[in-house]
Amino acid sequence: MSDGGEPMPDHPAQPGPPVELSADQRMLLDIRDTLYEGSWEDFIHDLQARLDGSPHVYSIVPDAPGFADTIREHLRIIDRLWACEKATGRTLHSRPQ
User: Which structural domain range is residue 33 located in?
Assistant: First the structure.
């Protein structure tokens, strides 16, 4: 799985040059926008609850060997995406808005 270290942002809500996002980054942005109504906080809380074995809303990573590593990788990518949004003042989207 990619480390999400590709350049960002891709399709910001505000004007700016698009830059390619990795497949994982696009997938996580789609999930945030679709399942969590654009909230990184809710998405992170749900993933962390899944890791902790607590009640959670969605199981986006199937129970399989290594699922915890996949969730931790998703959390790292989300941290980078959210940091980019905060630094640029832009909301990232997987597709042009």
Answer: 23-88
